[in-house]
Design a protein that fits this description.
The protein is of the alpha+beta class. It has helices spanning 2-8, 21-30, 53-62; strands spanning 37-39, 42-43, 64-70, 84-90. Strands 1, 2, 3 and 4 form a four-stranded antiparallel sheet that branches. The longest helix has 10 residues, at 21-30.
Length: 96
């Protein structure tokens, strides 16, 4: 499946050893209506790891992030070993 995603050339935010939620988020952000809000529980490493750099840049340049809920201290999923966060992103002009 990963090869098909790369070969589609639809995603500009894939970087190095990316995780499947990266293109999923990008697609969701591209499908947002004007002023629509995107939110999703994602691994906390999106905020600071190299593989998330292109997606973070895309969000900063094309959307407006209003909040990141840090739920790293909460066990959101019983079987998950990674901490999570919840970004809230609006499809509107970024405010620097």
């Amino acid at each position: 499946m990963d090869r098909r995603i790369v070969k589609s050339k639809k995603y500009e935010t894939l970087n190095e050893k990316w995780d499947l939620y990266i293109p999923f988020m990008e697609l969701g952000l591209k499908l947002l209506a004007p002023n629509g809000v995107f939110s999703m529980i994602v691994p906390y490493p999106l905020t600071n790891q190299k593989y998330g750099k292109k997606l973070r840049k895309y969000i900063c340049e094309k959307k407006r992030m209003t909040e990141i809920a840090d739920v790293s201290e909460v066990k959101v999923f019983d079987s998950a070993t990674v901490a999570n966060c919840i970004p809230f992103i609006i499809n509107t002009t970024p405010n620097n």
